Amino acid sequence: DKAGFKHYMLKEIYEQPAVTHAAFEDRIKDGLVDESAFGEQAAVIFDQVKQVQIIACGTSYHAGMIAKYWMEGLAGIPCHVEVASEYRYRPVVISEGTLFISISQSGETADTLAALRDVQDQILASLTICNVPASSLVRESDLNLMTNAGPEIGVASTKAFTTQLVGLLLTTLVLGRRFKLSQEKEREIVALLAQLPGLMEHAIKMDGSIEEMSQAFAEKNHSLFLGRGTLYPVAMEGALKLKEISYIHAEAYPAGELKHGPLALVDKDMPVVTVAPRNEMLDKLKANLQEVSARGGELFVFAGCSQEVQPGEGIHVLEMPEVPEVLEPIVYTVPLQLLSYHVAVLKGTDVDQPRNLAKSVTVE
Ligand code: F6R
């Protein structure tokens, strides 16, 4: 049931204010994260964690990349992230006290499941962040955190991703208590989470201006997505969405890498999308952006108004709500999902069932 929406994907994008709320609401007690939400053994296991190894595929891998910024940046937790299909096929070194975190919408992805099975007897414990309670990954993991996104029908993952991010933020907080995260900081982040549904709502209201923007992409064959910090994986996710459903080649780069090669590609046929972080790196990013526009490239900048990015010749600014830094990757994902959706609709592709792809990759 598409509930009046033209596609499941659009319906699922619009569900995000509600489901990101469902992903944290029952897990908060007295202003802190209730770690029993992860399972009975959670406290005992978390006490022994020395580092984290995250494994996932595709969109779920992008969620893992963002979690690494949080784990190391907010809490000082050593964290590695790798795609399951690489990790499982190479000899790996697993340090003592490793919490193995798998992230999966379906809980059935063959490579992710195989990676978990391969390391079972070398890890401290396993935790799955998953959307399907009755799935294999959930059954085979010591601890679980459900994302509570509800069934995701569109092949392109949307609400599963943003709810995974909420789950990973909660995970960072409970583990962070054992590392460098103060209780005061945890309270502060938990309080910010309450703003998330409203911010997601606000981002969805940009739908009209993004639909307009999508016209600049429909006739193109290539595009570039730039971001810094947690917004680099968001750029990767935006590029993946565009590739998957509109079949336009899209590549993501950390903004600082632009001048190390990809800048040579930029011309009027290569639109560039930037998700602008609100931090000390913004000035450098702006300088990067100027280099691109000087080469005739067309720039689309998603930024909060306090960032003072000036529109100009070939520079389009899409105004985002002001978002607390820790929530940026969750909120900035929404307009990129909408962009890929509208480009695909303009191109007339099968939005919910892109060619060659399956919702759940249970074979290798
Ligand atoms: C992209 C997409 C895929 C999945 C990947 C992992 O939109 O849906 O990249 O994210 O196949 O699937 P799960 O999360 O079910 O393990």
Automatic annotation (TrEMBL):
Domain SIS, first and last residues per copy: 42-181, 213-354
Keywords: Aminotransferase, Cytoplasm, Glutamine amidotransferase, Repeat, Transferase
Reaction it catalyzes: D-fructose 6-phosphate + L-glutamine = D-glucosamine 6-phosphate + L-glutamate
Entry's Gene Ontology cellular component terms: cytosol
One GO molecular-function entry: carbohydrate derivative binding
Subcellular locations according to the entry: Cytoplasm
Protein name, as recorded: Glutamine--fructose-6-phosphate aminotransferase [isomerizing]
Organism: Neptunomonas marina
Gene: glmS
